[in-house]
Design a protein that fits this description.
The protein is built from ten helices and no strands. By secondary structure, it is mainly alpha-helical. The protein has a domain at 1-94. Helix 4 packs antiparallel against helix 5 and helix 5 runs antiparallel to helix 6. The radius of gyration is 17 Å and the shape is globular. The protein starts with a helix and ends with a helix.
Length: 208
């Protein structure tokens, strides 16, 4: 199982970070089949469920709205199931992914979006593994979305400082690079203050 999980993880990172958008859809569909097969092979293991959820959620970005919403709900259920089997699945990464879904998806009645639940999940992940690049980065992103650039900067800075794991070198270094960019954005936000917020609102209104 461990070798299969490593292969799935490496393939996911390669598709997500290296493949052109036009080729990601079919690649994720094939990878989703692999994760589903592994989950059936090891029904009492949390890790295959975790990766099935991750691939399903990522693949949703390439589907129509109705199918994507269904896929996201399925991903949430898989993560909850994985956490029930082992709360410390993937060193807290199941909580990170679930928390990220809670703050990214629309709120009720469209979907299950819930900022309070997101905060709880992400903070739980940090308690399980305070030196997780993922947990620090996504909690920083959550704080930025709630207009707390000073707090967010603390977590982005930590994410950039945590050493990449040897077994996940590529994915970790990609996320560290994103954390570094996010940290620069928090510094710009601190300088410009509320101006950037109004600009964001203006840009949103312009798009509509």
């Amino acid at each position: 199982m461990e070798d299969s999980l490593k292969n799935i993880e490496a393939e996911w990172a390669s598709i997500y970070y290296s493949f052109p958008k036009s080729k990601q859809e079919h690649a994720f569909a094939r990878l989703l089949d692999k994760t589903a097969n592994l989950a059936r092979q090891y029904p009492n293991a949390a890790e295959p469920l975790f990766w099935q959820a991750v691939v399903k959620a990522t693949y949703a970005d390439h589907q129509d709205a109705f199918s994507a919403l269904s896929a996201i709900n399925e991903a949430r259920d898989l993560l909850i199931k994985a956490i029930k089997i082992n709360p410390e699945t993937m060193s807290g990464s199941a909580y990170v992914t679930l928390g990220t879904l809670y703050y990214m998806v629309p709120k009720w009645p469209v979907s299950f979006g819930d900022d309070d639940a997101a905060k709880q999940m992400l903070e739980t992940a940090l308690k399980i593994n305070p030196d997780s690049i993922d947990a620090n980065y996504f909690y920083g992103e959550f704080l930025m979305l709630h207009n707390k650039p000073n707090d967010a900067a603390t977590y982005f800075e930590k994410a950039t400082a945590i050493p990449a794991r040897a077994e996940q070198l590529y994915a970790d270094n990609q996320l560290k690079a994103e954390a570094k960019l996010a940290l620069k954005n928090t510094q710009k936000r601190k300088i410009s203050g509320e101006k950037s917020i109004f600009l964001s609102l203006f840009n949103s209104a312009s798009v509509k």
